[in-house]
Amino acid sequence: MATEQAHTEIFDSLPYYDDDLQKFPLLKQKVEQELAREGKPPSTLHPRVPPPVELFANNPLLKQELDRVETGQSFPTLDTIRYQLPAPTSTPGTDKEWQDAINNARAQLEHQRIRQTNLTLLQNYGPNAWRIHNYLLEETAKQAEKALEQLQELTVEVNRDRKNTQDRVGKQLTSLETRWTELISSVLQIEMANVALDAEVERLNKKEAELAEL
């Protein structure tokens, strides 16, 4: 329970009202000296800070690619052997070597056929698909800009409310502090008057005693 209370504590000040550091340069110098003597800030994050997000935790291939980009490693070279049609190395080639060459040629032919089909599909439907994609990106960007604008307006409004509140509270604090100073001054004046009256009473008592003796 105590830990929860410690986490929910909020330490705030009145930066729009407190200007003691500007009024008293010596005080500002002392504050800077105290800050310089303090140790380094803790390396651990605040308990309310969410943990870091682990990207592609369920996709090892994408995670490996992300790690490669973060470490600055170059992209691995493409395997061009698959695009070649090597003939049998021996002369004359064995039946297995010729069969492997034929299978490779068929695979290359199928690959080229699929590429041609994909290019035809891209030529027919690619422009519209990209237009739709760009439209969605533009809408997403507009929504993000609108959200940013609303957040900035909210931030300005919060700061404005904080400033107005602190100005109002600051005036009350100034009035109360002035009143407190006046009351303290009145109390001191009364105490000084009491001391003077005590001295006067003591003097009169002495005078009365002297007259009684006479």
Q: What does this 3D model show about the protein?
A:
One of its GO terms (cellular component) is Prp19 complex. The chain has 214 residues and is mainly alpha-helical. The chain has one domain. Helix content is 72%, strand content 0%. It contains five helices and no strands. The longest helix has 119 residues. It is rod-shaped, with a radius of gyration of 43 Å. The N terminus is likely disordered.
Strand content: under 5%
The radius of gyration computed from the alpha-carbon positions, rounded to a whole number of angstroms, is 43 Å
Shape: rod-shaped
The number of strands is: 0
Query: What percentage of residues falls in helices of 4 or more residues?
Result: over 70%
Order of helices and strands: HHHHH
Average pLDDT rating: 86
Largest sheet: none
**Low-pLDDT residue spans:** 1-6
Which properties best describe this structure?
214 residues, disordered N terminus, mainly alpha
List the helices and strands and how they pair.
Elements: H1 2-8, H2 20-23, H3 25-37, H4 60-71, H5 95-213
Subcellular location: Nucleus
Pfam families: BCAS2
Family: Belongs to the SPF27 family.
TL;DR of this structure?
This is Pre-mRNA-splicing factor SPF27. By secondary structure, this protein is mainly alpha-helical.
